[in-house]
Structure formats: C-alpha cells, structure tokens
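Write out this protein's structure.
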Amino acid sequence: MSGTIVAARAGAVATVILSNPGKRNALDLAMWQRLRQVVNALSADEDLRCLVVRGEGGEAFAAGGDIEEFRVQRDTVDRAMAYHATAGAALAALHDCGKPTIALIEGACMGGGLEIAAQCDLRICGVSARFGVPINRLGFSMYPGEMEGLLRLLGSATMYELLLEGRIFDASEALTKGLVTRVVADDEVPGEAYACAGRICAGAPLVAKWHKQWIRRLQQGQPLSEDERRASFAFLATEDYREGLKAFLEKRTPEFRGR
C-alpha cells in the first residue's frame, strides 16, 4: 500500500505528517507528489504562521525512499529522472515555503527523510535520533538535485562522510556538525518543536518572512544593491510595525495581523 502525507492544523500552526508506518515512513512516489501539493497549499495560506514536519508514530521521521519502488520507478534513466524531478519539486516547495518550517525529528532520519529535514529552517530532534544516507551499500548515488540542499547546509567535508563512508550520525554528532538545531530528551521533542512554533507565531509574520528572505540573499555572497537596501525597510509601512512599537511602549503583548 502507498503511504500518504497528512496535513493537520491547530490555530496558526500546520503539521505535515509523513505517513507510511509499515515502512518507517519511507517515501514513495505518491508521497513526494503529495508533499509538494500540501506544502505549496499551506505556504499560500495567509492565516498560517508556521509549519511543523514530522513522521507518523514517533519511531522514525522517515527512513528514506521506498526502495521497493526503485525496480520499477527508476529502472531506466528517463524514469529515474522523472522520479527525482518529483522529489526535487517537493524539496523545492519546502525550501521556498513562505512560512517558517520546523522538522520534528524522532528516531531514524535517513536518505530522503534527511533531505526533507535539511530543507526546513529549524531541526529539533531527540537524543536517540539517527541520521545518514547509507546508499553506498545499495549501489546507487544521490541525485545531484537532491544533494544540493544537504551540501548547502553541511558543507563538503560532512557530505563526504555521509556519502563516501555511509556514516550514521547520532544526535550529538549531528548537532556538532550543524545538521540539527537542538537536541532534547526523546519525550520532549514534540513539546519543544511546538513551543518553538509558538515562539515563531508570537512574532510578526511579515518579519519572519523577510528574515528568511534576507538570510538566504546574504548567503549568496553578492553585495546588496541600493534597491535591495531600501527594500529592507519595507516594514516601516506595515501595521505590524506600528503595533509592535505601540505595544512595547504600552508594556503589553502585541497583536500582529500580518499587515
């Protein structure tokens, strides 16, 4: 049976659930297709302020791609390219999401699951989480389009460890290498991830969007143009900026509306 992607919502926070519990949430082609559709729809929802991505069941974020599919879905170059174009589109949807994204990682986070987590803005895991891409033992290489997000996050030295050695990182090493944002006790992972989402939602949503934009722009290593520097002050024309200042002076909690 095919897995699925489930979207749930609580207030301004949406949860995207990778669900294929019989296979430790391994992603099949239909799940990659659905993931792109779900993330794009949530990204366009003006009432949402944060997305949490997690695996179903608590034993695994995602164990990678569904290897059983590969004999059919990737048996020729053309079919393999079509498969990975679908996966790449889902990863791009996460990378380009206009809302802050959090990966809630419990258990195994391997292969395609690691690629998904790498596209999220923040990654919170438990002490028993494990990370890796041991595909050198399966005889196939990582598609360059899917490698890009991990390389951007980790750099070449860690990518060599993951891909040439097939290393599996525990949570502590993953934190040291910048693969995860923070590590907490296993039973505290959901609470910490949603507390993180709550802190994000307490801020001005337009500011969160702009901070994501400017972080990525500055990583390009090119000087900002005069127009870009002027654009960085777009917040001056927003209602949320006026509300934030007023609330600070009045010593109360601001009520941001994304305008």
